[in-house]
């Protein structure tokens, strides 16, 4: 657990700051995973309530028993009033309009699925002739790689994305800034009061990892 920061813990759950590069679940070709690390650290196996991509860092909630997992899963599924899961991303270009909702179907296992991502431009900057943005995002649906795919489809891919990104730009940024990570981070999780697991609610925040810094330092705040 020494690589993983603990943001919150009670008798029902833990909220962790997952580092980029760590898979949430084990599987074929996966070495260490959050699932296996937690399994080794506790007498009973904590239960994953939601997922983050291997390359995405940030806030993730883990339940300590099945009853708590069922309650939390309901909150994530229904997105009740007061629930909020926020991401930040550094993207190529500057979105126009500066805020909106991306509603573009995504192919999932051979079928087109309705998908929705809200975004808001927070700041923008420039690297040589290349403009880039800090964007705040929220998911209306939870499709695989949804944020990355939606931003690619509106021509503002996440910097450092080696699957959906601008590969030539990524190579340039690797040379000039040493960029080797996806600049997508789950920065905040808000859950309203939920008896008995979170009687006072939750507002957990995780700062952006250090590899965001060269880009954040160049931003003009809006």
Short description:
The protein is α+β, with helices and mostly antiparallel strands and 222 residues long. The chain has helices at 34-41, 66-78, 146-153, 167-177, 213-216, and strands at 5-9, 13-18, 47-48, 57-63, 84-92, 99-103, 106-108, 111-113, 116-127, 130-139, 184-191, 202-205, 219-221.
What do you see in this structure?
This protein has about 220 residues and is an alpha+beta fold. It folds into two domains: about 5-85 and about 190-205, Pseudouridine synthase (2-Layer Sandwich); about 85-175, Pseudouridine synthase. Helices cover about 20% and strands about 35% of the residues. It has helices at about 35-40, 65-80, 145-155, 165-175, 215, and strands spanning about 5-10, 15-20, 45-50, 55-65, 85-90, 100-105, 105-110, 110-115, 115-125, 130-140, 185-190, 200-205, 220. The strands form two sheets. Strands 1, 2, 3, 4, 5, 6, 9, 10, 11, 12 and 13 form an eleven-stranded mixed sheet that branches. It has a two-stranded antiparallel ribbon with strand order 7-8. The longest helix is centred in the first third of the chain and has 13 residues, at about 65-80. The model has no long low-confidence stretch (mean pLDDT about 90).
Which short descriptors sum up this protein?
single chain, 222 residues, Pseudouridine synthase, 2 domains, eleven-stranded mixed beta sheet, two-stranded antiparallel ribbon
């Amino acid at each position: 657990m020494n690589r993983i920061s603990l943001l919150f813990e009670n008798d029902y759950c833990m909220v962790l700051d997952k580092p980029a590069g760590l898979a949430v679940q084990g599987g074929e070709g996966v070495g260490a995973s959050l699932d296996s690390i937690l399994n080794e650290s506790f007498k009973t196996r904590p239960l994953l309530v939601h997922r983050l991509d291997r390359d995405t860092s940030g806030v993730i909630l883990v339940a300590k028993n099945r009853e708590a997992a069922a309650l939390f899963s309901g909150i994530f599924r229904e997105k009740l009033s007061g629930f909020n899961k926020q991401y930040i991303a550094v993207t190529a270009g500057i979105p126009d309009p500066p805020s909106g909702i991306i509603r573009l179907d995504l192919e999932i296992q051979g079928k087109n699925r309705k998908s929705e991502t809200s975004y808001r431009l927070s700041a923008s900057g420039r690297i040589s002739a290349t403009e880039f943005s800090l964007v705040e995002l929220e998911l209306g649906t939870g499709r695989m790689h949804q944020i990355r795919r939606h931003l690619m489809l509106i021509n503002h891919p996440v910097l450092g994305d080696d699957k959906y990104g601008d590969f030539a730009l990524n190579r340039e940024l690797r040379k000039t800034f040493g960029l080797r990570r996806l600049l997508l981070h789950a920065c905040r999780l808000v859950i309203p009061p939920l008896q008995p697991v979170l009687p006072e609610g939750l507002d957990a925040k995780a700062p952006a990892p250090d590899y965001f810094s060269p880009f954040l330092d160049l931003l003009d705040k809006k």
